[in-house]
User: What shape does this take?
Amino acid sequence: MLSIPYTGSDPLTLSLCLNKARTKEVLSYHKINTPQFLVADSINSLENFQLTFPVIVKPIAEGSSKGIFNSSYVESIDKLSAFLNENLSKYLQPFIIEEFLPGREFTAAIIGNNNDTVVLPLVEINYTELPDHIHPIYSFEAKWIYDTSANPLDIFTCPAKLPESLEREIKDLAIKTYDVLNCKDWSRIDIRLDKNGKPAIIEVNPIPGILPNPEDNSCFPKAAKAQGISYVELVNKVLDAAAERHGLI
Ligand SMILES: Nc1ncnc2c1ncn2[C@@H]1O[C@H](COP(=O)(O)OP(=O)(O)OP(=O)(O)O)[C@@H](O)[C@H]1O
Ligand SMILES: [Mg+2]
Assistant: This one.
């Protein structure tokens, strides 16, 4: 509004991506693979429930796995009702219920605009690092309780070890998603393989976290490092992408 140039996406993209259901509606229109879902703002929303279990239940507009616990992986309608009863009043927002993607999980860190958009080496989330009784999800417990800087888990593999064709497919899906949502300068896109081994979009982070301490597990700096890009260079690359987009360099 004040004509001050800034890095990153505009308010429309930021707001759209904060709402996981609206994001998925846009992706579906563009035929981008993303799991079937239902939005629940009360228990009555379950009357038309037609999804296949297991499902994952998440607050519609959070990040950093706030409100996503091991118990968010749900296998029956009774458990789903109980989960919603307990959590709708706690989080004061609707929940999105999504069919669970059972395959390997990756995140794609992207920098740039137009023809200069680059996907950094893919990061894979290693679920073998979590205790056996825990569901394979990058939950609040997995990010903030089991993994600490004092006791870090080896939770990321970067670059992810993948057949070249699958790696290309994942990166192309990430770029297409970035373009469709009009992301600018940088974003991180979470992707998981569905039951047929096809990559599907979990969610889009147009302001990804970048923890500066390499001992804290943070996907974007990890992906940059795998490409030989330091933390400071990463910050400058985002700045340069924005400056170029605004015609300042
Ligand atoms: N449909 C799904 N199928 C399988 N796993 C899922 C699904 N949705 C979410 N997850 C798991 O839950 C994790 C957190 O979900 P999501 O990325 O939507 O939350 P977030 O809080 O926005 O995360 P971020 O820290 O990236 O902002 C994912 O990394 C993934 O492990
Ligand atoms: Mg995520």
